[in-house]
Amino acid sequence: MKRTITLLAVLLVAFSITFIGCKKEQKDDGYVFASDATWPPLEFVDNGELTGFEVELIPLIAEKVGVTMTVKNIPWDTIFAGLANGAYDGVASGVTVTEERKNSMDFSTTILKAGQIVIVRTSDSDTIKGMQDLEGKKIGVQIGTTGDFALEDYPVVKRAYDDIGLAIEDLLNGNVDAAVCDSLIASDFVLANENYKSKLTVAGEPFTQEDIAIAVKKGNTELLSLINKGLELAIADGSFNALKAKWNLL
After folding, report:
1. Which of the four pLDDT bands, split at 50, 70 and 90, describes residue 250?
2. Who wins on pLDDT, 155 or 11?
3. How far is CA 196 from the centre of its chain?
4. Cα–Cα distance for residue pair 178/170, rounded to 1 Å
5. Which domains does the chain have, with CATH numbers?
6. What pLDDT does 137 receive?
7. Rg for the chain (alpha carbons), in Å?
8. pLDDT of the residue at 50
9. Are 36 and 93 in contact (CB under 8 A)?
10. Each residue of 170-191: pLDDT tens digit?
11. Dist. CA 5–CA 142, nearest whole Å
12. Burial tier of 101 (Cβ tally within 10 Å: 0-12, 13-18, 19+)
């Protein structure tokens, strides 16, 4: 009897493992991409909803290649650690392609061109016309971004913030002399935001040139191929450029 019960228990365990295994194989949530929603027009929260160019680009790519892709809001300071440990499959968050990042992640074909640019108060625009006029001055930047790293090459006083919006607010309040961020983001703050456009000015031209792409975990060639194919198809049928136009990125 004991042997029969033991055998039955073994069979039940085996059945459970098989059932759970089958259930796991059938479950398919698709690919998940992280995005730090503090960078309009690329990614931001509007009325509680995640939106923006890259937030809409990911499902567009998914549609072209017939898979499911979703975007979740992840803080920038943990975004690449999460990619490395498998918390999600990719990062679509205005990621600049750098040689250092290529060591730990792979990149799609370029989706946008950008550069770091200076934002100043309009009242200071006659005296500050670019990085050359900011020696010794306080500059706000989002921590861990390309702008943060770029300022290391200049004799300025850097103040790092959790998101660029906080740096912009400190600029308006007179706590910093300028802010530095991607030209794509700067144009949104200065030209599109009703609260800022009369008070802020872009000073000069971008002082860096960068390729923006979608990042995936190093070696994930399957997902990278899907992204690049989806981009290729979206560019060919005009939907990619239509999306750029929607978000004033032409």
Report:
1. low
2. 155
3. 23
4. 9
5. 31-113+212-246 (3.40.190.10), 116-203 (3.40.190.10)
6. 97
7. 23
8. 98
9. yes
10. 999 999 999 999 998 887 777 6
11. 63
12. middle
Q: Residues for the chain: how many in total?
A: 250
Degrees (nearest 5) of the Cα angle 91, 94, 97?
A: 80
- In single-letter form, the type of residue at position 168 comes to I
Q: Which residues partner with 112 through β-bridges?
A: 212
- The encoded tokens of residue 170 equal 């400190």
Read off the amino acid at residue 64. K
Q: What is the pLDDT of residue 192?
A: 73
Q: Using H for helix, E for strand and C for coil, what is the string for the chain?
A: CHHHHHHHHHHHHHHHHHHHHHHHHHCCCCEEEEECCEECCCEEEECCEEECHHHHHHHHHHHHHCCCEEEEECCHHHHHHHHHCCCCCEEEEEEECCHHHHCCEEECCCCEEECEEEEEEHHHCCCCCCHHHCCCCEEEEECCCHHHHHHHHCCCEEEEECCHHHHHHHHHCCCCCEEEEEHHHHHHHHHHCCCCCCCEEEECCCCCCEEEEEEEECCCHHHHHHHHHHHHHHHHCCHHHHHHHHCCCC
